[in-house]
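Worked Example 4.2. Read the sequence first, then its structure tokens.
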Amino acid sequence: MTSDNYKMPIILVGNSFKYEIEATMKLFFNTARYSFGSSRDEISGDEYVIAEVDGNKLKAEVRLKGEDAVIREISVDDDKNKEHEICRLIYHILSEKTGITPPWGLMTGIRPVKKVVELIRSDVPKEDIFRQLSDKYEISPKKLQLAYDTAVNQLPILDRIDSSAVSLYVSIPFCPTRCSYCSFVSHSMDSAIKLMPEYIDALCRELEIVGRIVRETDTKIDTIYFGGGTPTSVSAQELRTIMEAVEKNFDLAKVREYSVEAGRPDTITEEKLRVIKELGAGRISVNPQTLNDDVLKVIGRNHTGTDSIKAFELARKIGFTNINTDLIAGLPTESAESFRNTLDRMIELDPESITVHTLTIKRSATLFENGKANISNPAAEMVDYSIPALMSHGYLPYYMYRQKNTVDNLENVGYAKKGYESYYNIFIMDETQTILGAGCAASTKLVYPDGKINRIHNYKFPYEYIKRFDQLMDKKEEVTECLKRIKYIQPK
């Protein structure tokens, strides 16, 4: 794949398996772009993939870098398996041609633990779970064990989930600066400062409307999560205004978990932390990503590693007893040794939970433009170190998700000491509890009693969210109907 603008042609003949075939390709070329067609005539250049379905015959043809094309064929009678099996053909050709063996094999979904949970709940023995998933997806034993451990640790919490209750997500989509790896719809404070008063006013109005729906349907709030962006980008008084709107419009008496992503250390002040604690949030995140100052400069952070440690110690001083810290494996210019030093230092600080993300190169991130430079970074070595290091210090994996374009096709894992697992993180991955989103770029996930899920997305940009607020609120009728229906679900 010769240039950043080049799009490798994928030709689909007799099928429409675009999504999974592209996902399979990205296991090997995670920053590449693709074009899709239905005829050989649409092939240009010396690289292509052809996926052909003719009755029960499947054929994959792959040509890379002008080398001879490789063709594989099989017969599959079951229509439901044709998509998976043609992806398997392409997967094996690419593995042989590139020398890459993705650790999660053919699995491209973002929730690998859900499959393990389902099998455990069906009383399938561990060895049979490993065999089934290995046979179908060719997952490495190491990743199977990680997924299994995660499932075992989150099952007791899933068994106590109240599907008649809901969680509340509050979006504050602003950051001091935009990190080079970031793909979230977040906005720098320099560009958003003029909109801030109007945004906070609109957000508080939405919280009032959602709160009224929750009260009228007699719905219990289970967890609350402030995310973004960086919620502590706003001033202490602005944060107080938003949190007081939550307190005013929702009954917090039965809330099991209230989290605020304090996030970037350069936004954390004693005043803001005291507001967070005073208004009921007991769990916060302090997210250094790395303690290496040189790497922090490369990714566009304005703080130092020392600032991160001071922010953590300040939160402890104020009385927070449930602190999470986020790290990222595979950041540009980070060495394996540097990552180990960061992780070891964070373990010494003794937070209640540590989340290890793997660098994901999204097209909307600045880093995507130089994505190929990150293909050879030591993310896998970093992740391999983190698993035993954390578990040997009492941090157990309790939730996991995967993303497209992640370096080395790795995963993001939350580790916590026993009793400090985040309910919200588990619920959003398991998709068995309704989550009401408020604010710009927030998403409401309605989970109906029959398992059907419907998503309602708020407008992505603050200006649009403010100007089209009334139109957005028209969508709340469906929220009311869903809450009426889940009200009678019996808690587990």
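Now turn to a second chain, presented in exactly the same format:
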Amino acid sequence: MSDMILEVRSELTDRIIPFWKGLRDDVHGGYIGQVDFDLTRRPEAERGCILNSRILWFFSEAYIALGDPSLLSEADHAYEMLKKMTDPANGGVFWAINPDGSVFDPTKHTYNQAFAIYALSAYYRASGLDEPLKLAYELYDTVQTRCFDGDGYLEAFTADWRPESNEKLSENGVEAKRTMNTLLHVLEGYTGLYEADRSEKVRDSLMFIIDVFEKKIYNPKKRRQEVFFDMDYRTLIDLHSFGHDIETSWLMDHTLRILDDPKLTEKIRPLLLEMADNTYKTAFTDHGFCNESENGRIDRTRIWWVQAEALLGFLNAYELTGEERYKTAVLTQWRYIRDFVVDRRPGSEWFWSVHENGTPTDKPIVEPWKCPYHNGRMCLEILRRCGSEGRLAEFKE
């Protein structure tokens, strides 16, 4: 067991952290927004707000966990770039800017606002500065005013907050008016904000989101979440997103721990464990975790973020149930990640995805969605739960 902990620590400190530090751009600010599969760096590429927010979140949380001042310096650097992504005229953050600070894509997306809140909340906890918390609350108020319609969260908007089409968070041939994915990450962002400041209005928003999950998103007959919806939460496609279900199973459980409401936990946690069990039976193999199933057809691509979230989902399920199958799944999943998903070329990090036969695809190593958030969070969460001060004695160093 201790071998996994030591390997995960090394993965974090010897590969993931140095790789992302190496993308720092001291000329334009922020971090280089694209690295091709052949490791060619594209400093001219747009700077996506999702990528930058996730970098800010990662370095903030890594500093909190490891105490290395250089990590706080990286978070400071990412924070300055995030401020450039805010819109002083209309509020909110843009989808992406150019390296020179001009707007590349003016879309205001609820998903983007949520990740900025998540990042700013972590940076506030890391830095102790008041400004990032103030900005996080400004974004929270913007989301609640502009994106919330009483039934849930709308998705995509123009720069001046007029609704627009939601291609950015829709896939599989549909255009969704509401998505499970956006709701999940609003929950995540608000959880980070509540953890930072314990505001009652944020707590109320979290309770609302969990209620929507239970009543509108979760499908009890299929023991899974639905993914894409119309305005009335009618599902648009028979899609089982294995990665999002296993991610939700531990992320929402983290929210339950933060809220510390026993009755709510008693009601919701069984649904989360149902999703963990269902994905264990349908997506988990001894050679990685499958992506999704559409109309019963399984996409067996092994995507980097899905592998990381599967490990954490099984770790959480083991902590809650003590079932040996989940403990075995954690170790099996780590071995797969270590042997196939980690890109061992000098100057690289993790592959975007791997074919079922174990060979990598040629997708970029960095682009607007490919970030240190999933794999970095996996490492940090394992160390928190399984390290010398962690809750899971079975995995102690």
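Notes for the reader: The two ends are 8 Å apart (CA to CA). The chain has a mean pLDDT of 97.
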